[in-house]
């Protein structure tokens, strides 16, 4: 009898991607210095209460954590397979600071103004998380320490390193790369790389 193929790395690789030797680290700008006393993670924008909420480092680092094993895919075509992320799920964050019912999008903000927008349906996905650990160690500074967003089913520019704020949006807005010609949705399985590929309704008006 025919056995189904196990989901090996080839089956897990979206179109046009390859697994490189070693581990590329890429980001725009320099690695920020973590200052635990002044660090805050803000949840703002269209919250249900109408008020923003800030977590201090002791508060955020004590929230319940979950683990996710996921591959990640850079739009420049390399993929890093089998990362084990551990952190606070987006669902937990939304329970603690609920969005207003009309929220449809989220902007994730980093140090220095880097940002990425995701649809609420992608944010609310059960494997979207705010990771504090990678492969059972605190995330390395250049990979996003202390907190990195992980949205593994979208191209990796949506997985924002050095997260400082989550902004609930009623109307969609483009983030850093989305403003510079990259696709608003960014599904690697559909090769949604560039904004010129966007169909009506996939980007802000
Ligand atoms: N804050 C911030 N996060 C970022 C970026 C960035 O420039 N700034 N680059 C993104 C891009 S394009 C990629 S491919 C991944 C790279 O992650 P890595 O360095 O852990 O491989 O980080 C993403 N997160
Ligand atoms: Mo990337």
From TrEMBL:
It comes from the Bacteria. It holds the Pfam family Oxidored_molyb. Residues 29-177 form the Oxidoreductase molybdopterin-binding domain. This is DMSO/TMAO reductase YedYZ molybdopterin-dependent catalytic subunit. It comes from Streptosporangium saharense.
